[in-house]
Amino acid sequence: MVKRAVVVGAGIGGLATAGALLNRGWSVTVLERADGIAGGGTALGMWPEAMSTLDELNVGAHVRAHAVLSYGGTILDPHGDVLARIPASRRAHLVSRVRLLHALHEALPHGTVQWASPVRSIDDLPESDLVVGADGIHSAVRSALWDRRAQRPLGTVAFRGVVDGDVGSVTETWGEGALFGITPSSDGLANWFACLRADMSPPPGSDAAAELARHFSTWHPAVAAIVSRLSNDGIDRRELFDVALPHPYVLATVALVGDAAHAMAPNLGRGACESLIDAVVLASAVSAAPDVPTGLQRYDRARRRRTQRIVRAARTLNSIATARRGLGLRNGAMRLLLGGRSSRGAGDHGTAHAAGSRPTMSA
């Protein structure tokens, strides 16, 4: 008898979970409140482990064909001096979020995703053997069955977008209470991201482009060139939170994946990657186990401790990268730990670190 799953949410984690379950013979319905895949979105860094997962979902070749492969790099200070160099052996494929979403969706049978289908109550879900909450940081599934207070503010605000033109590599620049990153993306675009402490950030509804230019225009030329080209209609602004769930990610025949379970600060570039891995591990566990609850327990044991460690590490790095005090100690420690040296002008040439191998808010 074919087992049935209902997946709530058609983001990266939800689409990947649907694909992984379908590949193992399940019948799957995905419920998504939006009426389709949203356009836009910045670049995501796909680590080798995530690329292996995409191969299992039969979309790896498509992603590689449209991604930029990034190697090694540098973390800078606002003058363009090198704080740290990352070995060229560290690599990641950079692909736009919307292209990845389309690839995952197109790999599913037509009609798998029911668009414009918000879930207002768990009791209203179709009958199934398995329910997967893949509905993001504001998860309705988590709020209904787990902890409404799992979200924690990071005290920072992120701004992200893309501009036309190619950049050859990835940079991340750390200043006082702020950071600014530039990465290649697919489709001939350059991805940028900024993070400021909340009390330094322009408020919602303000002229964000002008405020970002005011803050970052005195940084090294690679940053100044990007902020001089920003327009408000291309800026995504969001206060940052993570999720610290003090409970297992599973309850009877219900499981959480991706941001619903372990939303994390974007500084380690792991969020999308961990969502993909969740999907394949969950599908494998429930398909191999004698029953769904046993399979979900195996999934939880495989994923909860690992992802919670990454949540903690990403939160710490978000705080360090946007520190307002002790910058000399921070910068000196980065040079010592990661082999940086003072080298003025690196920011002029876009020397970079590999997204996914070190801090990057692009994923």
TrEMBL record:
Keywords: Monooxygenase, Oxidoreductase
Keyword Ribonucleoprotein carried by entry: no
Record domain FAD-binding: where: 5-73, 254-313
Stretches for region Disordered: 340-363
InterPro entries: FAD-bd, FAD-dep_Monooxygenase_BioMet, FAD/NAD-bd_sf
PANTHER family on file: MONOOXYGENASE, PUTATIVE (AFU_ORTHOLOGUE AFUA_6G14510)-RELATED
Protein name (record): NAD(P)-binding protein
